[in-house]
Amino acid sequence: MREWLSHYLLLPIGLTISGINYNKVQQYRNLLQKSEFDDFEIRREFINQRFRDLIQHCYDQVPFYRSYMDSKGLKVNDFHTIADVVKLPILEKQIVNQNFDSLLAENYRPGDFRFDYTGGSTGTPTKFGIDKKSYYKVYANAWRFWGYAGYQPGMKILLFWGNRIELTTFKRIRHKIRSVIENSITLNSYDFNDKDQIWRYVRYIQNVKPPILRGYAGAIYLFVVYCKKFHVKFEYPPQAVILTSEKIFPSQKMEIAQFFNTEVFDEYGSTEFGIIAHECHSHTGLHLAEERLIIETYNAEHQTSNFYGKGEFLITTLDNYAMPLMRYRIQDEGFISNQICSCGRTLKLIENIDGRVMDYIVTKTEKLVHLIIFYNILSKIKGIKFFQIHQDEIGKIMISIIKDKSFDDKATTKIDMMFYDVFRDDLKFYIQFVDKLEVTSSGKYKIISSEVVSHYLSI
Q1: Spatial distance between the Cα atoms of 144 and 43, rounded to a whole number of angstroms
Q2: Mean pLDDT value across residues 367-378
Q3: Of 8, 134, 238, 343, which residue is 20 to 30 A from 380 by alpha carbon distance?
Q4: Quick one: pLDDT band at residue 371, thresholds 50, 70, 90?
């Protein structure tokens, strides 16, 4: 009854109130489900046409791209297929920050945008705009991909999420309303090492019996780890488990599947683009959302780009006309295969993604705290250009910050208040201001490094 109510009443009404046309979501979902089995040549021409339309829009309405194309002597008719995307500049997060206003389309009004923030693996808080008019495509794509795990709109989903990071009353209220509309339940992944809390979660899950479990891969894995530690039995087998947001090892994924006695699916997405790729029942890789996104594999050393093979991902969205992000450096890398999946879908496959490994620190009471919580605090602080967190003792962290001129004493006070609101006395932090951050051997910034967390992740 609850699923029927959500599917036929709450979802249509709720999405309509939020400005998303429910019928368009369903229609586009149906188109995507058909398209993924289309002949590659048919889909390629569809994508090329969408790319040409986007280039025309960018030249006509987006000052950043119009200025770049004029400076290079490029015309709209110089872009014929997606292979011509390499004629455009690579968008770093810093470039988005520095050129935010000029990346916004001139023919869009303020009410046509939905704004959000992301930090990714660099620790660079980045604001970006999303096209409200086409946001229904984000929903449609998610429903298409979750359908691989048996999901139907309105079906109950239980989320292992860091909902403690919702730091404002408005966000808490919005989250609760959305949960009712979408028939979702969120469990706080912050307290998994508390035995009583684990038992409460298990009893709750077995009582409500959600067909789909979805959430941070690390959070779900830790839930399994602590259930085993506390000898908690889980007798309800869900229909499927969907892992997202970070990378875990194959052995850990297998452990999750065995514990829940169900099939486990990997999902790859981002705040900027929604779900980028998703695993199907064949488990030979993650199908790319080619109808919505162009993904290049980039070799930074040789400054060459391809659409197959190994490299760093550069992503171009074909939907976001409000603030087009083209050749966006998302700071993940992996391998894109040219093989066709045995399931019959002709979408490209990501065979491997390197990055988004679990990032946690340990509090005084030995709670594991995920990177996303720190990002959601520090990304709200004006004047922080980059940040990096290091831990060499439980209950204490050092935050290295590269600041700009807008960072002042009020910013420090706000950090103090927000950290206390989340952690109370369970975590001490120290701030140091630096001119540069440490990088890994591969040249990337790692936002969190802990010398003590490995013990807790291998309980």
Answers
A1: 17
A2: 80
A3: 134
A4: confident
**pLDDT on residue 10:** 86
Report yes or no: 293 and 315 within 8 Å, Cβ to Cβ.
yes
Report CA Rg, the chain. Answer: 22
